[in-house]
From TrEMBL, chains A, B:
DNA-binding region residue numbers: 46-65
Pfam families associated with the record: TetR_C_11, TetR_N
Name of this protein: TetR/AcrR family transcriptional regulator
Region (Disordered) residue spans: 1-27
SUPFAM superfamilies named in the record: Homeodomain-like, Tetracyclin repressor-like, C-terminal domain
UniProt domain HTH tetR-type: residue ranges: 23-83
UniProt KW keywords: DNA-binding, Transcription, Transcription regulation
Taxonomic placement: Bacteria, Bacillati, Actinomycetota, Actinomycetes, Kitasatosporales
Matching InterPro entries: DNA-bd_HTH_TetR-type_CS, Homeodomain-like_sf, HTH-type_TetR-like_transc_reg, HTH_TetR, Tet_transcr_reg_TetR-rel_C_sf, TetR_C
Length: 215, 215
């Protein structure tokens, strides 16, 4: 996704075949997608409109992203946006002070912030409809987010090591459950998502709905 | 949903002045909606097309359902479809044999079956997009499903009474969490939703992800 070519962008043609890509062109295109999602929504967004807004040609866009869904996915789910994990402090002291429920709360909060951006909220139903029509698309696009899932697994592993999570916990099922809750709350008009929502979800999934064994 | 039901949503104009509605007309219209959802999907479905397929006039449809979303919601989420609860056997013997995790599993299974119908799977992304544009719509439509939510609360209350669920459990949060998981798994291409999925979800939310207190 990087290139050192300082060549002009925004002048209409973009780099030709075999020439390194200009990251500023990528940024201009992704910015244009986010603007248009906020202004028009997913259904009315077109590659042509994105190219015009970004000041590039349609082929310049298609060379980078084969479909509108690929383009929108990258614009609204930046894969580098993995800020839910605690700072990389693995000292025993720091680890001892960590709490699994806090970790889960932080993950849910970060995901809520991400999904509540206007361009993301605008894109999600349209992307879901595209997934419906092209089942392979979701799998392909979600590989972009494998790093997020991997970071979540690390978080679970660390909690197991601290004795705070079940050793037999299915981290992927928990990840999907939390992702589902965040997606659902974003899609709903959701009076429920106020302060404390992430905490409530974290407590529910960590403590469980069943009667505590210690009772 | 009986013949004397005055209207699907309670918010429409209801039957024409002085003329009782024929439930067979309702059924024909709702059947036509489900057929067209399977054949064409949500976006291409029109009130005009539904009327034609059902052999009625457009005003006949509009008299009953003010928008396409109202019509589709009733066609794919039948409010009487609340089969997740155990038989109404409140004898002490029967109650003693009930298990909260089983109850949750049954709820998730029933919801999965409902969401995996082709017409429902076809309608959901379109409905979500409409909710996005008209936030009041989701609230209005979901009142149709209040009976399902109420039945779920009863299920939780019964589990609390049996000592199997936390007394402080937020039944609505659990309901929303499970609904989210089902919706999400239906929207995804979801290699995960095989046999045992409902059981895994039920165990996760009942036992919790945290280390058992008895450990």
């Amino acid at each position: 996704m990087t290139a050192s070519n300082p060549g002009p962008s925004g002048t209409g043609t973009g780099p030709g075949p075999g020439r390194p890509r200009d990251p500023r062109t990528d940024d201009a295109i992704l910015d244009a997608v986010r603007e248009l999602l906020r202004e028009q929504g997913y259904n009315r967004l077109s590659i042509e409109g994105v190219a015009r807004r970004a000041g590039v040609s349609r082929p310049t866009v298609y060379r980078r992203w084969p479909t509108k869904a690929h383009l929108v996915h990258e614009a609204v789910y930046p894969a580098q946006d993995v800020h839910f994990t605690a700072p990389d402090d693995d000292s025993a002291e720091s680890a001892a002070g960590r709490d699994f429920t806090d970790d889960i709360e932080r993950f849910v909060e970060a995901a809520l912030v991400s999904f509540q951006r206007p361009e993301t909220a605008s894109a999600v139903p349209g992307l879901l409809a595209d997934y419906r029509d092209q089942p392979e698309l979701r799998e392909a696009l979600n590989t972009r987010l494998d790093a997020v899932r991997a970071a979540f697994r690390d978080l679970v592993d660390a909690a197991v090591a601290r004795g705070q999570a079940r050793a037999d916990l299915d981290a992927d099922l928990l990840y999907d459950t939390l992702s589902a809750v965040v997606l659902y709350s974003t899609l709903s008009s959701s009076r429920r998502v106020g302060p404390g929502f992430a905490r409530s979800v974290a407590e529910l999934v960590v403590q469980g709905a069943g009667r505590p064994a210690a009772d």
